[in-house]
């Protein structure tokens, strides 16, 4: 499909550990259209971050290894690129913002130096050009007195301000795709609201394509156009954001949405809860990874792993059961 | 929850202050203090859940610990069932502690990795001379069943359990002395979304079964709305608003409460699209050097001259609804 900016096919990533091989990502395929915001939702260990790190060539190897799959970005397979070529893509064309703004900046270098580095490396700017652009970027992400603050070290910024610096850095080379890996999880809600407001503004101004990884369905509801739900290293449901919240179809998505209390509604009744624990991923399951926790699980669910099937316009689900009737789909 | 004795006050906190001194220089002279909790007063009624919310660093955990005398308050009174805890010492304090327990935030750090689950849950019983030998074993098994864990797990070590299971162990330990009051310090914020509902349901069931009183400290305002009878909001060491659940969420009075509520994402794209957010500017000031007058004035969208001059009194504006703001009539 030519209109896809990023096209991932059959991605599989393993980690070797002393306890055995962890099957972190088990054949993930999805496309990303230009200008869209894709939300990736799931609990810790579901493979959402590892999927994106695999695409970016950032899986530490060993112990990790991308064992199968293709990742096409403007006609090139990112997974087959040399390390040098990949360095030109990373940061310049696809960039990433990470969860922890406290550890992703180098504490012994000034913020200015760290912002100028990619500008000189990727865009061939001189030091003084880069300095002007860095100040401009800091201003763009809403940091007061950007020129003076270039000389400050990361510890002189608060958590929210550091995350703004990270965003400025990620946007410095005008990338085509921004991958944000839980960028607001470590922040307080009022600061999270500031950052989300900033990202929405920049997205509209710059027409950015964004992949937003989070465990917070509320964040996704406010930001994404399309959502992918991951569980046990698989995509189990994918739909437009309105469709997903209006008619969640996979039992896991359904349970997740029902289990969340809402700040705008008074529901003082027992919360719906999904019993049991997420899978450990030491074996690649031959059956549905959610079956052990699923109240609809049938015989077939224990025998075959369901594949993603289209159930509506742009709505795909990997489940054998129709949760409305409780029977085979 | 017992409704018959709702009016009965279990805990009364009067003008509680906790300052942490800052020492500098060769002779470790005190140069200032972090004013973590600065003159707050409230009460907790028997059988209720008081939710305590606020952003990181606002003093909510310090308040919880100062109530239990884990931190000795700088000044103020904590009256628990007619006993002033602040002046209790040694054996008397130890005996009173049986009635008040704590559940901690981090289920990975709050369990000793070198003790078996049975030893962890049984230790309070032995320390307080309430049981010995076989009695302890039986009681541990009972407690494990109570928190829905397999009683056979008592010989295992904490690392063999997931986060949610560990938090259940923490709950069992807190219950071992049959307390009447439990401080829950962010008990679910380290857990995955699908596990949070499990733990919250458990806490609610136990409350009903044993008529427990909770101080539920959290930053997740949606969950606090679900679990609390009344809710208190803190900002930079002071309490800014306290009301019953409906009053606080349906008609918040303090500008900070309003901003905080509007910042919480709602897991519903349609509700999200129609929301008007109050985005607070800037960050929370340092508690070592808080602003004069009202502490929220530096970020308050409606602050006036008066707000910088005097500290607003925490007063009851409608029955049971307390607020500290000059501009609320």
Structural category of chain A is: alpha/beta
Given the structure, what is the number of helices of chain A?
10
Main sheet strand line-up of chain A: 6-7-8-3-9-10-12-11
Number of distinct helices of chain B: 11
Low-confidence stretches of chain A: none
User: How many DSSP E strands of chain A?
Assistant: 14
- Given as residue ranges, the uncertain stretches of chain B (5+ residues, pLDDT < 50) are 1-6
Strand proportion of chain B: 15-25%
Shape of chain A: globular
- Quick one: how many beta strands of chain B? 12
Helix content of chain A: 25-40%
The description of the largest β-sheet of chain A is: 8 strands, mixed
Q: Strand order of the main beta sheet of chain B, please?
A: 6-7-8-3-9-10-12-11
- In sequence order, what are the helices and strands of chain A, one letter per element? EEEHEEHEHHHHEHEHEEHHEEEE
| CA-CA gap between termini of chain B | 34 Å
Brief rundown of the structure:
By secondary structure, chain A is an alpha/beta fold.
Question: Could you characterize what this model shows?
Answer:
The complex is a heterodimer of chains A (about 325) and B (about 325). Chain A is of the alpha/beta class and about 325 residues long. Chain A is about 30% helix and about 25% strand. Chain A has ten helices and 14 strands. In chain A, strands 6-7-8-3-9-10-12-11 form an eight-stranded mixed β-sheet, with helices on both faces. Chain A is globular, with a radius of gyration of 21 Å. The two termini of chain B are about 35 Å apart. Classes of the chains: A alpha/beta (about 325), B alpha/beta (about 325). Chains A and B meet through helix 7, helix 8, helix 9 and helix 10 of A and helix 6, helix 7, helix 8, helix 9 and helix 10 of B.
């Amino acid at each position: 499909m030519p209109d896809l900016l990023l096209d991932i096919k059959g991605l599989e990533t393993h980690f070797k550990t002393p306890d055995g091989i962890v099957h972190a990502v088990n054949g993930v395929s999805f496309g990303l259209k230009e200008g869209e915001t894709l939300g990736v939702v799931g609990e810790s260990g579901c493979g959402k971050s590892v999927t994106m790190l695999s695409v970016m060539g950032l899986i530490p190897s060993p112990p990790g290894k991308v064992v199968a799959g293709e990742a096409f970005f403007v006609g090139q397979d990112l997974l087959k690129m040399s390390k040098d070529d990949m360095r030109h893509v990373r940061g310049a064309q696809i960039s990433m913002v990470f969860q922890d703004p406290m550890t992703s900046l180098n504490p012994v270098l000034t913020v200015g130096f760290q912002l100028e580095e990619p500008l000189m490396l990727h865009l061939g700017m001189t030091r003084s050009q880069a300095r002007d652009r860095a100040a401009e970027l800091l201003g763009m992400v809403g940091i007061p007195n950007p020129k003076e603050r270039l000389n400050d070290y990361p510890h002189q910024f608060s958590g929210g301000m550091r995350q703004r610096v990270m965003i400025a850095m990620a946007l410095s080379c005008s990338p085509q795709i921004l991958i944000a890996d839980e960028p607001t999880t470590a922040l307080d809600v009022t600061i999270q609201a500031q950052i989300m407001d900033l990202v929405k503004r920049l997205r509209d101004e710059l027409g950015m394509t964004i992949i937003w990884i989070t465990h917070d369905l509320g964040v996704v509801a406010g930001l994404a156009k399309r959502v992918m739900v991951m569980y046990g290293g698989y995509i189990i449901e994918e739909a437009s954001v309105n469709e997903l919240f209006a008619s969640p179809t996979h039992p896991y998505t359904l349970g997740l949405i029902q289990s969340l209390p809402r700040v705008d509604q008074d529901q003082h009744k027992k919360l719906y809860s999904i019993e049991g624990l997420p899978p450990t991923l030491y074996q690649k399951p031959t059956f549905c990874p959610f079956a052990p926790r699923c109240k609809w699980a049938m015989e077939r669910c224990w025998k075959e792993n369901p594949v993603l099937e289209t159930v509506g316009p742009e709505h795909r689900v990997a489940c054998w059961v129709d949760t409305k009737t409780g029977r085979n789909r | 929850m017992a409704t018959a004795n709702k009016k009965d006050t279990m805990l009364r906190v009067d003008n509680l202050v906790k300052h942490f001194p800052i020492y500098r220089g060769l002779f470790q002279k005190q140069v200032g203090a972090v004013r973590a909790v600065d003159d707050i007063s409230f009460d907790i009624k028997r059988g209720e859940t008081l939710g305590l919310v606020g952003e990181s660093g606002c003093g909510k955990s310090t308040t919880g610990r100062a109530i239990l005398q884990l931190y000795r308050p700088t000044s103020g009174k904590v009256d628990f069932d007619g006993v002033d805890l602040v002046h209790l010492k040694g054996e008397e304090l130890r005996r009173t502690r049986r009635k008040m327990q704590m559940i901690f935030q981090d289920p990975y750090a709050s369990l000793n990795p070198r003790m078996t689950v049975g030893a962890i849950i049984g230790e309070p019983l032995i320390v307080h001379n309430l049981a010995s030998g076989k009695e302890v074993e039986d009681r541990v098994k009972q407690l494990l069943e109570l928190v829905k864990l397999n009683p056979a797990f008592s010989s295992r070590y904490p690392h063999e359990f997931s986060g949610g299971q560990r938090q259940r162990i923490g709950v069992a330990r807190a219950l071992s002395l049959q307390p009447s009051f439990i401080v829950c310090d962010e008990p679910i914020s380290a857990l995955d979304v699908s596990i949070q509902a499990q733990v919250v349901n458990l806490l609610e069931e136990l409350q009903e079964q044993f008529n427990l009183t909770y101080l539920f400290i959290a930053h997740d305002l949606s969950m606090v709305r679900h679990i609390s009878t009344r809710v208190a909001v803190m900002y930079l060491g002071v309490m800014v608003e306290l009301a019953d659940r409906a009053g606080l969420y349906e008609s918040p009075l303090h500008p900070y409460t309003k901003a905080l509520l509007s910042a919480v994402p709602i897991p519903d794209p349609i509700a999200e699209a129609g929301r008007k957010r109050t985005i607070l500017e800037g960050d929370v000031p340092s508690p070592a050097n808080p602003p004069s007058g009202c502490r929220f004035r530096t970020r308050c969208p409606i602050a006036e001259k008066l707000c910088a001059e005097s500290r607003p009194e925490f007063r009851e504006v409608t029955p049971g609804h307390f607020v500290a703001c000059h501009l609320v009539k």
